[in-house]
Amino acid sequence: MLAHVPHEGKPGPALPAEDVLPDTSEAYLESLQLLERMHRLMLDLVKDEFERLRQSDLTPVQAMILYNLGEAEVSAGELRSRGMYQGSNVSYNLKKLVTMGYVHHERCDLDRRSVRVRLTHEGQRIRHLVRELFLRHAQGLAMSGVLDDPPLDLVNMQTRRIERFWSEQIRYIY
């Protein structure tokens, strides 16, 4: 059973017996912890790969911004809304990526306040490196059978449903 997890070594209150969570709630709480750990591990994997390739000028978060930007030309706001980045972090990282030559930016013709960004050739090269890393992982996971039970497409469908629920909760607040 999943009890309240203390934060950074601080003791946390245990759940009272009458507040015992149903199995689905426990599974949901565990999935939240797994999602957070998987995100950090993914960034560590990218960091290790870049260290191996001696690509030391980028942080893992910057590499993921390049990966998620892909072939699109978008505004910083659009990038934030489709990724996992905080507003100020996106602005800071985009500025760094432009300075380092990985991202090209230009003012939008229709709205001069808006800036559109897209990958440069060097940014596309980094995106390709990250994609190749993930494809190697996918191949290894597929060979081990990890992606078969339950099928990953069903896991993705469930995750998209949770994402949609969270989005609706955020919209409901405002």
Automatic annotation (TrEMBL):
Keywords: DNA-binding, Transcription, Transcription regulation. It holds the Pfam family MarR_2. It comes from the Bacteria. InterPro entries: HTH_MarR-typ, MarR/SlyA-like, Tscrpt_reg_MarR-type_CS, WH-like_DNA-bd_sf, WH_DNA-bd_sf. SMART domains: HTH_MARR. GO terms for biological process: response to stress. Residues 28-164 form the HTH marR-type domain. GO terms for molecular function: DNA binding; DNA-binding transcription factor activity. The keyword DNA-binding applies. SUPFAM superfamilies: Winged helix' DNA-binding domain. This is DNA-binding transcriptional regulator, MarR family.
